[in-house]
Amino acid sequence: MKTLLALNWKMNKTPSEARAWAEDLAERLSPGDAELAVMAPAIALPALAAHLPAGVSVGAQDLSAHESGAYTGEISAAMLVDVGTRYAVVGHSERREYHGESDATVAAKARQAQQNGITPIVCVGEGLDARERGEQVPYTLAQLAGSLEGVGEDVVVAYEPVWAIGTGKTATADDAEELASAIREALRERYGDAAEEVRVLYGGSVKPDNIAAICAKPNVNGALVGGASLKVPDVLGMNDALK
Ligand SMILES: O=C(CO)COP(=O)(O)O
């Protein structure tokens, strides 16, 4: 199974900036062992699909839970597929917190993605409260169970402890593995042997200098990266660190 380096730009870069970034990456990337995917604002996806180097996937940061119709402002899975989208992040902690997304909504979005041939990257992870109480495993597994309701095995799970996102506080590689192995066990109960093929990512302050140690853990199959995804040199550094 190929390590996945998923780059979550969040609400950054205009379509023109996305195009320039993709062209810069195309000039400088020497393919490594990891699969790269860029999760960009939806409006930048056509520019990325046209200008990213071959083999780098295009991903969305969200999608509608609905198929089509009277849902003003929403973007459907079919629209994303039409512009070449391969992955979609669902249930990022920022959407759960600022847009009130429940586990049920996240699961509905993941099902919608799968029905249209997009692989959902389902995000889970505890906040500081649960971590300080030592309840990170049960908290995260409960969130995972709700977020995978009716979701098939063509899925990626991203463990992103909220306290490590954008804070510079990275979970240790052992913290990441603790949750990744608990998630793997839950996936085995849900999908049987197919769980071994589901990629489990870690996210939260991942950078060129810590990615290799985290991704070397047996149940960690890649990273979901925010801040360090915005600059091409950092992405090249992470790609090289995974060779
Ligand atoms: O939320 C994240 C990726 O989805 C992590 O963000 P940072 O890498 O900026 O901590």
UniProtKB/TrEMBL annotation:
Catalytic activity: D-glyceraldehyde 3-phosphate = dihydroxyacetone phosphate
Active site annotation, chain numbering: H92, E160
Keyword Iron-sulfur listed: no
Claim: Isomerase is one of the keywords in the record: yes
Annotated keywords: Cytoplasm, Gluconeogenesis, Glycolysis, Isomerase
Residue positions binding substrate: N8, W9, K10, G166, S205, G226, G227
Protein encoded by which gene: tpiA
HAMAP family: TIM_B
The protein's name: Triosephosphate isomerase
Enzyme class: isomerase
